[in-house]
Write a structure and sequence with these properties.
The chain is built from eleven helices and two strands, in the order H-H-H-H-H-H-H-H-H-H-E-H-E. By secondary structure, it is mainly alpha-helical. A two-stranded antiparallel ribbon has the order 1-2. It is elongated, with a radius of gyration of 40 Å. The N and C termini lie far apart (116 Å).
């Protein structure tokens, strides 16, 4: 059959209003096409969206039995599968995918009945065999009046894993930069709640014992157990000096003076600008 005659016959068979109108408006041009493939390409460009593959795939995965009869569910699912048969690689619905969808998107009670069958051998079942087993089981459920015990709308909720609740962050504020830490340290502010002694909500405290701040949703710090340090004498040849700990992450105190610690060092060691409370670098300082 010549391509032009085939095109004319196909155009005359277009009965849907939009396609019939398209043929009437463009038939003079369409009759001049040299090949059937050219006509098919023009038809697709006009009536088939470029993303129809994904649309068809979405329709397949949106099919569920819900309140429908099982046979109606199967027919709808098969139509959706057949539509994807010409979509090409990546869109083909294999028998395994079809079986899984058929079972797990069926009515919840029907699904339970099938899963409870001893020695079902699901992995070896053919599609037609599974359809027959499910259709027979569905007829039994309808006769027993069990198909309305669970609302089909709850089917997905009943058999889905509950999402893990996302907990609110325990500490809502971002980490302090070094400059921000130094600014807080200089005025005796708290590294944890970020309050300053000049703030109305300020209560004197150390950062490690911070009561938190309700307005900023900052939880209180859990106090650490007290550490007992044995008292020791100053060994001969050593001296006691008071040092400010320079690591912000360890110091983490709202009171700058609370970061002062005592240390024993040999008398001949010279301590530069970190000596506090009148301690001297000289050997005469005891």
């Amino acid at each position: 059959m010549p391509p032009q005659l085939r095109i004319v016959l196909a155009g005359l068979k277009l009965e849907e209003s939009n396609t019939s109108l398209w043929w009437s408006e463009n038939r003079d041009v369409l009759k001049q096409l040299a090949t059937w493939e050219a006509f098919a390409s023009c038809f697709k460009d006009r009536f088939i969206p470029s993303g129809w593959h994904l649309d068809a795939l979405a329709r397949f995965y949106n099919v569920s039995q819900g309140a429908d009869d099982f046979r109606s569910f199967v027919a709808t699912l098969q139509v959706a599968r057949n539509t994807l048969s010409s979509a090409g690689l990546g869109y083909t619905i294999t028998d395994s995918i079809f079986k899984n969808h058929l079972l797990f998107f069926a009515h919840p009670i029907l699904q339970l009945r099938i899963r409870a069958i001893p020695n079902l051998g699901y992995e070896n079942l053919k599609v037609d065999t599974l359809i027959n087993v499910m259709a027979t089981t569905w007829s039994s459920l309808v006769a027993e009046g069990l198909t309305k015990l669970i609302s089909p709308r709850l089917a997905f909720k009943v058999f889905s894993v509950s999402p893990v609740p996302t907990s609110k962050p325990a500490y809502p504020l971002p980490d302090l930069s070094y400059a921000e830490r130094e600014a807080l340290r200089s005025v005796g502010g708290c590294f944890h709640c970020r309050l300053l002694p000049s703030d109305a909500a300020w209560k004197p405290h150390l950062a490690r014992e911070c009561p938190g701040d309700v307005k900023q949703e900052i939880p209180p710090r859990v106090p650490r157990p007290a550490t007992t340090v044995a008292a020791v004498g100053i060994p001969e040849g050593h001296k006691e000096v008071h040092l400010m700990h320079g690591n912000p992450g360890v110091t983490d105190l709202s009171d700058p003076n609370a970061g002062i610690v005592a240390a024993l060092i040999p008398k001949d060691v010279i301590i530069p600008s970190r000596v506090f409370k009148g301690d001297s670098d000289s050997d005469d300082s005891d």
